[in-house]
Task: structure prediction
Amino acid sequence: MSIAQQLAQVKERVAQAARAANRAPEDVRLMAVSKTHPPAAILQAISCGQILFGENRVQEWESKREEVLASPLLVAASSSSPAPKIQMHLIGHLQSNKAAKAAELFDAIDSVDSLRLAERLNQSAARLNKILNILVEVNVGGELSKAGLAPTSPELLALFDASSRLTHLRLLGLMTVPPFTTDPAGARPYFVQLRQLRDQLRQRTGLPLPELSMGMSHDFEIAIQEGSTCVRVGTAIFGQRDYSSPTAAPSES
Ligand SMILES: *Cc1c(COP(=O)(O)O)cnc(C)c1O
Result:
């Protein structure tokens, strides 16, 4: 199946899952996760109207970005129909020393996992004169192999308590990658946990925290049932990832 067909199918499944959960389909955004896939794949999705994307490494997006942004697809056809503008989110672990580059190249950072990183991003965004949307990544399963703050970590509270002085960040909510379970329903308790944590942080801070980024190819329907506002789907749109290609090392940002 082509990327166009797979994208159409995933969109339909997202809408169906939303309706089945008595939610409006437009309340769940579909992020196309293009890591390891070439600019041509991203452009195919753009030609089908997809504008929200996720990449997990700074350098990888840096190497693909020019080719994507130079495409005629992103240039206005006429003054009456403005060019579509894509939104690229960083969803992989970010080292503090790459915060400046990430703040420059991405429209949002969905994987903020320390107060120090948030402070660095805030400084970088201030220098760039932009407001950066961020999500805080939570490691709900407590897995050592995964990034994110523990749900009970004092640093998580400290980060949210610092939000009023992080003037160039807009703290919109939480993101998680739950432990893998063969049965997608196995992820449900983790999704519930993320939603409850968001509710607690909302009460504590008074921030609206509208965003819950949860659900991937394997389990997005369950995530939508539990309140996801953004599902991050790679494989089901672009096919299997090939980590042997030179632009696609699986390591961290
Ligand atoms: C790769 C990745 C995804 C997409 O995973 P699929 O199973 O291919 O849909 C989602 N979120 C994050 C953080 C990822 O790194």
The two ends are 31 Å apart (CA to CA). Residues 3-75+83-240 form a domain with the TIM Barrel fold (CATH 3.20.20.10). The first strand starts at residue 29 and ends at 33.
